[in-house]
Amino acid sequence: MSSSEITRPDDIVEIKNLTKTYAGRVRVEAVRDITLAVRRGELFGLLGPNGAGKSTTIGVCTTRTLPTSGSVIIAGVNVIDAPARARRRMGVVPQYNTLDRQCTVWENLYFHCRYFGYSSAAATQRTKKLLEQFRLAERAESFVRELSGGLAQRVQIARAIAHEPDILFLDEPSAGLDPQSRLALWESIRQLQTNGITIVLTTHYMEEAEALCERLAIIDHGKILVCDTPQNLKSGVGAQTVIHLQLTGDSDPKLQQALRALSGVKNLEVAADGVRIFVDSLDGVLPKIVEVTGTRLRDVSVNEASLENVFIQLTGRDLRE
Fold it and tell me: CA 112 to CA 160: how far, in whole Å?
């Protein structure tokens, strides 16, 4: 049993043998027998390319999608048997803006509180607190359609936690945001976890997963490929440094064999424009690589081992496809 499959007393999310198949002219198995657990207070990520099954998994967890088979327990509540009760325990920020565009920022937060049973006075007090917490007080009377993407996303997160849920699901939270807004969003997410909320997010941005997540599962074609801390996943590459060689023409087997034979080379992968070489140290290896590749070498770049390297080793294709 992998670390992602062990159920613990402090697990707030328990996904067991989850499968979702869409029937039609072409049968699509979006999620394939996923078993996964998230610990209370954890910031957990599902990392994978578009179409990997991340959003479908979150959709089942948040009661928006019925599974074909399997079970999901959120904060002790079976989301299939008791969806309304499960929704009270969770906050959800979907991929797309679902704020009421005919309402102000204040009204979006206030009416959400009222919907979850707050009295008028309690809803007013909670709305004021959220506006201050998310630095939205100056935009309280603004309509949603007047907000930038970054501000709108902050309002969505504020609304999602207005009823004080145990867990927050974020589906591609920084998609479409500019770098400055993305960094501000990351800070808000970290602060929410510090305040005690469990967070599960999906992303196809490697840097986002590495910057935020304590643990993450890499998912592709509806299956969990691996689940661990970002550091442990990168250590699994078997090298500390990746040398990317851009070559003229294809990298033929003879050249690959010569590069693999170099002292210090741990592994080699074929890339679209050349090869990636994995090494523990750069000491003396670059001159040897230049000598072996000769005039076929167009460019060379050196980077630390990354989550993308992990993904490529597992699937043989680039994470951003």
Answer: 8
